[in-house]
Fold this sequence. Notes:
Elements: E1 3-7, H1 8-22, E2 28-31, H2 33-37, H3 41-51, E3 55-58, H4 61-67, E4 73-76, E5 88-92, E6 106-110, H5 125-134, E7 138-143, H6 155-177, E8 183-185, H7 189-194, E9 203-205, E10 228-240, E11 245-246, E12 252-253, E13 258-263, E14 287-288, E15 296-298, E16 304-308, H8 311-318, H9 322-327, E17 334-338
Parallel strand pairs: 1-17, 2-3, 2-9, 3-4, 4-5, 5-6, 6-7, 7-8
Antiparallel strand pairs: 1-10, 10-13, 10-16, 11-12, 13-15, 14-15
Helix pairs in contact: 5-6
The structure holds pyridoxal-5'-phosphate.
Amino acid sequence: MAYIILDKNNFFYNLDIVAHKTKSKDKIAIVLKDNAYGHGLLEMAGMAQEYGLKQAVVQYKQEAKKIKHLFEHILVLADIPQKKSKTISYTINSLDSIKKFPKGCLVELKVNTGMNRNGIEMEQLSEAFRLIDTHRLKLRGVFTHHGCADELDGNYEKQTKRFLAVKKEVKELIKSYGWKKIRFHSANSATLFREKDFDEDIARIGIAAYGCLEMPKELCKVELKPVLALYAQKNSTRIVKKGQSVGYGASFTAKSDVVVSNYNFGYGDGFLRSCSNSYQTPQGVQIVGRVSMDNSSFISDADELLIFDDAKDVAKFAGTISYEVLTSLKPHLKRKVAVF
Ligand SMILES: *Cc1c(COP(=O)(O)O)cnc(C)c1O
């Protein structure tokens, strides 16, 4: 079976750079949704804890349960629990969801500042506070999410300005209800690296920690190191003669005799089929024919092949983003943590 190597040194290297920007490890909330961006939830959560991170972010309560012993606090982005928890807070994504949370539940209120995906509208803040109070939920934070933090189109500044207004109004509301101080956050990886002087309570960091942040040069020039590498093992080797073809649809035809080996991974393991016929490994080994479910062929006779060690490269070939390359990798692949 193909397998994944997770480079702990690179992960810690990235976290050092992130912590320098946030000015404290305690302000990093590591985003571990989607099986930690395909890296492996437990593997990455364990390393994050070893590094000294105390906060995590996941999508669902099931994920939070698996890692709650490792963190002081976890934010769940989109789920509603049966029972309250002292260390897990849940996101309010709309006004009408407020009544569904159990009494005493820790919640964080998401406010839409222009991405128009999730969160209450800015005009609904006082109504949200009234409902949170009526349903006796405990407000722990107010946050927003940027839709254009890696773009230069002016939307980022508009959202930032709106969130400043949200903070101001929320502080007044907190005072009038006599509630405890809450936390504010709006930064994903791109936001953190684009800001000169980060001053919020936490940053929700995914792609930067995994070493695949891509930003326009005008915004930030940071060099991070990819954590994940995918390796595959050989099933068989043959000489494909001039004029013969390889794989489904015979989409590759040899121009001269060539040594081709088949390796034990394909789109069934999460390797994108759009890499068919075009992808080259970091060592310049060429894929030939279509990627099939559990098989891919390369011009090589090596017993083992490094398929990629930087998801950004695969993304270029496949016409997508590193997030999709990484989260496509299936949980059944073996993951090993390595210290180089
Ligand atoms: C996924 C996600 C993040 C992390 O974004 P990156 O670009 O990977 O840093 C942060 N906040 C929210 C709400 C998210 O859904």
